[in-house]
Amino acid sequence: MIFLKKLILLPIQLLFSNDYLKERGIRTVEDERIDIVHSYLKGKTLDIGCGTHNYLIKKYKNGFGIDITFYRNNDLCASVENLCFKDEKFETVAIIGTLDYFDNKEKALREINRVLKKEGQLIVTTLNPMIAKIRYTLAIWKKYGMPNRPGFWKKELLTLLDNFNFKLHLHKSFILGLNNIYIFVKK
């Protein structure tokens, strides 16, 4: 029964904005992502691209939520390409569905590597490119627009992060296999 309910809700979750769904009491894809990422957090955490409500850090209560757009619930309005934190400040860095939007992924990953402690973890959630393209094309809401590069295949994400000294520790699919969580450890 739960599987059937999730299957029925999924198109609605993908097509409508989080605010629209929350107003109607419908659980969002963002809620699902926050819950799964929250279950893996360790120590002081940096959530990059925390969004309007900074949900992950508000729930976890140990870290900072940053976004390039100023929202009143952000801890900091900043670019991931130029972080104002000391070296090796965080045990965990989370990128929840926002890696697609980074203008300069290489510069951003260098900064993430700098602020993450040795053997710290980088948590990334992303759709695969096929699902991402469908989702962004069909979505009724266009708040953020189409990302620079929607979604990542596992192999290309592993290659990208290996270039910045990250080793895959865990990969799981969730939301009926359409979303992915990757946990990398800084070598």
Can you give me a brief rundown of this structure?
Helices cover 35% and strands 25% of the residues.
Outline the structure in words.
Helices cover 35% and strands 25% of the residues. Helix 4 (55-60) links the parallel strand 1 (45-48) and strand 2. The chain has a seven-stranded mixed sheet, sandwiched between helices. By secondary structure, the chain is α/β, with parallel strands linked by helices. The model has no long low-confidence stretch (mean pLDDT 90). The chain has helices at residues 2-15, 18-23, 29-38, 55-60, 105-115, 129-138, 154-162, and strands at 45-48, 63-67, 76-77, 90-96, 116-127, 166-174, 179-186.
Relevant CATH superfamily: Vaccinia Virus protein VP39
Task: Report the order of strands and helices.
Answer: HHHEHEEEHEHHEE
Can you give the helix content as a percent range?
25-40%
What is the annotated CATH architecture? 3-Layer(aba) Sandwich
**Please, how many domains?**
1
Order the strands across the largest sheet as they lie in space. 3-2-1-4-5-7-6
How many DSSP E strands? 7
Averaged pLDDT: 90
Low-confidence stretches: none
Please specify the SSE layout and strand pairing.
Blueprint: H1 2-15, H2 18-23, H3 29-38, E1 45-48, H4 55-60, E2 63-67, E3 76-77, E4 90-96, H5 105-115, E5 116-127, H6 129-138, H7 154-162, E6 166-174, E7 179-186
Parallel strand pairs: 1-2, 1-4, 2-3, 4-5
Antiparallel strand pairs: 5-7, 6-7
Keywords:
25% strand, Rossmann fold, 7 strands, globular, single chain, seven-stranded mixed sheet, 187 residues, 7 helices, alpha/beta
